[in-house]
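Cross-check.
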Amino acid sequence: MMRRQGNESERMRWCGRIVGSVLLLTFVVASVSLAQPAPANKSAAEPAAAPAAAAPRVLDQNRFPPTPTPFFRGNLPIELSRSGAPQVGFYLNLWRFVPFLALFFGWVWLGQWVNEDSNALKVNSEFWNSALFAGGLASMLTGVSMAPFALGFFLSMALQGLPLGLYIRERNACVPESARLLTPKHIKSVAFRLAARLGLSLGGKKFKQQLLGPDIEFVGKTSTGRRDTSRTSQVENSRGFLAAKELVYDALIKRATDIHMEPKEDELQVRLRVDGVMYAVEPFDRALGDNVVNIFKILAAMDITEKRKSLDGSFRAITGGREIDFRVATQGTRDGEKMTLRILDQSNSVSTLNDLGFRKQLEEQLKEVVHQPHGLLLVCGPTGAGKSTTLYACLNDIDSFQQNIITIEDPVEYKMANVTQIEINTKAGQTFATSLRSVLRQDPDIVMIGEIRDGETANIACQAANTGHMVFSTVHANDAITALYRMVDLGVDVSMLSSSLSAILAQRLARRLCTECKESYVPKPEFLKKANLPAEKIEKLYRPPKAGENAACSYCGGMGYRGRVGVYELLVITDRMRDLIRDKVALSVLKAEARKGGMLYMQEEGLRLVVKGITSIDELLRVVK
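Predicted model, tokenized:
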């Protein structure tokens, strides 16, 4: 009985399973039938395959027609859209991803440029780096979260462009006009350059000269020093014209005062003098270098066929709204023709004596000499020591409207308002001596002579100082006391020299330590004792970083120094010293008398700058022996 009941229960379970399977199979078949449209050639007489309960589903199918393309996960390619089978494919839209990828890398590149540019210009680097990072991050989040692709992309560009535009506006206020970005001139220049690369000629002749290379224009001069624009047109199509522009522009950017082009066996070596020290730059190959030399010779009205004799001339360059003069000198050597360009930048001229870095007491003594009604002020030092700059500062300290100031120079280095400036011309027979004789008939109050080179000029200068004129001039000598004997060696009578001389200023130029990368150190007590410096008052001195440590300093370019400062020695001629000069006493006696008057030697003045951290002891020993 129990077995019969168990068998019946088992049969009931199997029947339930069979019925459930049939119902499930029926449901699946019905679902597939409803999902597919009925064939077009189906006969109306056939019986309905679906039960009456499926009628509402037929109505839903007629209400919502099927999609024209099959179901596809991801991007639907064109070749798959024509097939009827559902597909699963690539989920990334390349047409939208590539622009945002370019936007991301543009953000990275602009961030690096803003960081380097703001550090170089000292324009609040931390703030602008943070602003550009925040703008770029917001643009990326906006681009991936906003549904309309076009709106999201342009909004992302706006979020990046806003801080960039504000930074460019601030940095343009700190740079010269030629270096400003996104100005009409800059945009026009970029557009014309791109057109030139595509073979299109736009912008006219003047702009064609600037299509390639830096924005600098050469202006030639005649043999008499007058402007000659025809010489520029002679060289603008030469092979080395672009190289010549790049060389000059690079020298101006690096604040060079001289460009030296020295021929070697297979190349033309180029060196720049920056802050009084020579630095080598990339050389030219010999053929290109010879072309560059010839271009400068044509601009300076020099004979390009003459390569053995020494020649000289000058030309001018215009860049950034300023005019820069170049003095050109050549000399034949064993390997070829050597050329030196002396750069005279009007924008670097010193305005007053206050800008020269004199000690207060020394500045007051010099001003007292400058404003004397008559006398002779000599400035001595080697070539490149800043003698002419000092004399120009002395002239600027005088009221040129109440005084008749005349200068005799070779050549005129800096233009001065309301000052008569004469440039000598040895080829035409116009020398310092002949010019000085004629100038004294022009009723001058102050006469500046560029350099006393011979006895005739020295005697005329002393005579002018004795006859009621104030005379400024330079002479080559190592120190102030030596300059006295230099004038005697030129043939000046000691009686006339003692009565005409007012003061002698000896000077050197030492490089300033970079304020961004200089490092401090504790000096040795032996050195302080030898230099007569109080060890108890000096805790530290400064020096440039070791080689390689300052390579990242953008302010000094890795040199450790930037700019120069004057080291001076002023000898004021007193009545007692006039008597000693007439008696032709020994050099030691004159020095002892000068020390009694409070004169400090250049070494002592230089140590004052070392203690203040303005320069280093190594630099002082380099310029002052």
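Residues 100 and 143 are 7 Å apart (CA to CA). The longest helix spans residues 2-35. Passed to J.P. for a second look.
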